[in-house]
Amino acid sequence: MAEKKGSKTKDMKKTSNFVNRELSWLQFNERILGEVKDKSIRPFERIKFLGITASNLDEFFMVRVASLIDMVHADYEKEDIAGMTPKEQLDAIIPVTKKFMSDQYSTYNRSILPMFNKNGLHLIQHHEDLTPAQANYVDDYFDKDVYPVLTPMAVDASRPFPLIRNKTLNIGALLRDKKAGVMKNSENELPEGEQELAVDIATVQVPSVLPRIVHIPSNQEGVQEVILLEEIIEKNLQKLFLNYEVICAHPYRVMRNADLSIDEEEAADLLKEIEKQLKQRQWGEVIRLEVEDSIDKNLLRELMKQLEVEDESIFRINGPLDLTFLMKLSGLEGFDHLRNPKYTPQQVPEMNNEESIFDQIKRKDIFLHHPYMTFEPVVEFIRQAAIDPNVLAIKQTLYRVSSNSPIIAALAQAAENGKQVTVLVELKARFDEENNINWARKLEKTGCHVIYGLVGLKTHSKIALVVRREEDGIKRYVHLGTGNYNDVTAKIYTDTGILTASDAIGEDATAVFNMLSGYSEPASWNKLAVAPIWLKDKLLELIHRERDNAKAGKQAHIIAKMNALCDPKVMDALYEASSAGVQIDLIVRGICCLKAGVPGLSENISVRSIVGNYLEHARIFYFYNDGYEEVYMASADWMPRNLDKRVEIMFPVEDPDAKEKAKHILDVQLSDTLKAHILMPDGTYAKQDLRGKEKICAQDTFCEEAVKAVRQEKSYQDEKRVFEPVMAREQDQAPAD
């Protein structure tokens, strides 16, 4: 490709050259919402995306917004890379979020609900809309299934306002004592003239142990009717407060600060300290209160007082609270025609079930691309190691695993079989802490040596090492990947990895685990680049090499695929490389604090974000290197937390076939015209104009290619089985020399 003219920028570190991280993340959630609005997408896929935007926003508030609030409380005023203080960031985030949520519910009410009705699904929004027969059914369901589970909590002088747990859905009510007719709690008295409106406040948690989506009888043939559980409870609320008159009742939901603060230096037992902090998470400061936009003003005033919430933290909603229920609704039976056909991850063409997985890896590096290819080889790698009498040791890092993990089962079996099993379980994996604590204890009981990583650092690397005794000595086999050892998310996240018997990588893998378990830093590495000490320097070296090649008049090109880009030093290096004439194509799914296509700064940089049926999660980096192309994959994004505060691994893809496959992934994603959002110089994202362009969806392309590859391999093996005996007979019958 022809070299582009270099830009000439003097001051690349101006705050105006960067985008605030939190606002960039909100743009990413807006791109997901754009999929909800895309009518070319099947209806039940669209509602799944809407549920995802709600789930994303919850985590954003519990962690990112909560962190900013903590900074404001601590009078921390340091500016971020875009020149914004924590207070300025909050002031910008809140109105953007409220506008976004308004857009969410406008889409829900104007597009999703009519789409449901058109396709034979009726979601009854208010219990007042039930027919008499449906009302009787709902009341009976409440009496038999719901009432026994509920715990109504009235508030008066002897009963304080209860703890409202994080993310739970609740119904608040104002009650009037039928006997007294006045407020019992003088502290809660309203201004004169309003006292007759309320007596006491009460609250009921909508139980998460019951289905939120309740099917009810329909009078229309071919139509499924459902109602949400909170509407059923609200309709029957009077049954919970027999001595009171229910003045009003409305659902509400709180979001609490869930950002754990752990002093690892002072924690004698990290596992117990994290367990303690998990309990504190439920008591975190309320940072968001969601209410119906029609909520009674007196009830809202009382909730604000009890929960200690100010006006800016109140989010009024025109629709059902917590849209994550749509993800379950998207799986409703009877609507397969409204969903994408289910894709089955394909077998890895180079692998077979007829010989040992170790023999196959020793013969050639195996490239893995999930979910297009099955995750089963990774599971089988550990499973075969657990029962192979020649395997001496297994070492593995675990960050997030499924609730019924086959890898955990295999590791436990390996320990029971007498093998040396060392597992690093990252207890600080956010929102998976409790799950990981349980796994750590179970693994310890089976005889595994469980470690928790380095103080002050999360271990986010994805590496598994198997040490095997063979005829010619000890052999090490390694799996390195970009994604978690989670068989469930491997079906919905796109990730890459390799299985290798490389001696150099095997030595490095041993050094990684020695570092994690014994704090023994190697003097040098053969192939791997490990954060937080070496990886960033390696990345900067690779970027600077392209810059220097461009300055020398050579062709220079960088392609990098990742989830997020916000490391200042890396972005400065990319701006410098762009100015020198390096063509830089970035595929960044989420946060991107860099600006693209800006004259004098980044005119040689393009950025695209792909939002599709699968969550883009792989990290792949390509460097042209004056024609001696280098490709790397990594567990790390280009973020300060990954490069400076975590144990991460970047590894080279050196096998020629594997390298071509990694490059092909990048090429196809750069060719995507349907799902790619292009970052414009003004900071907005836009989909491409399809006029005159071929319609290409990278994810669909990979699905089709995986199916085709398996068919071709099967055809080849069938022919081989037919012709090999014939060729053998012909060879036997050939005359001797």
List keywords for this structure.
eight-stranded mixed β-sheet, 27 strands, polyphosphate kinase like, alpha/beta, single chain, disordered N terminus, Endonuclease, Chain A
Summarize the structure.
With 737 residues, the chain is α/β, with parallel strands linked by helices.
CATH class division of the largest domain: Alpha Beta
Contiguous low-pLDDT stretches (5 residues minimum) are 1-10, 181-188, 192-198, 262-268
Which homologous superfamily in CATH is the superfamily of the largest domain?
A: Endonuclease Chain A
Count of DSSP-assigned helices: 18
CATH fold group of the largest domain? Endonuclease, Chain A
Q: Name the helicity range.
A: 25-40%
Reported for the largest beta sheet, the result is: 10 strands, mixed
What best-fitting shape do the alpha-carbon axes yield?
globular
Radius of gyration: 29 Å
Mean pLDDT: 89
Which assembly state applies to the chains in this document?
single chain
End-to-end gap: 55 Å
| E-strand count | 27
What structural category do the secondary elements indicate? alpha/beta
What is the number of independent domains?
Answer: 5
Tell me what portion of residues adopts beta-strand conformation.
15-25%
From the coordinates shown, what is the CATH architecture of the largest domain?
A: 2-Layer Sandwich
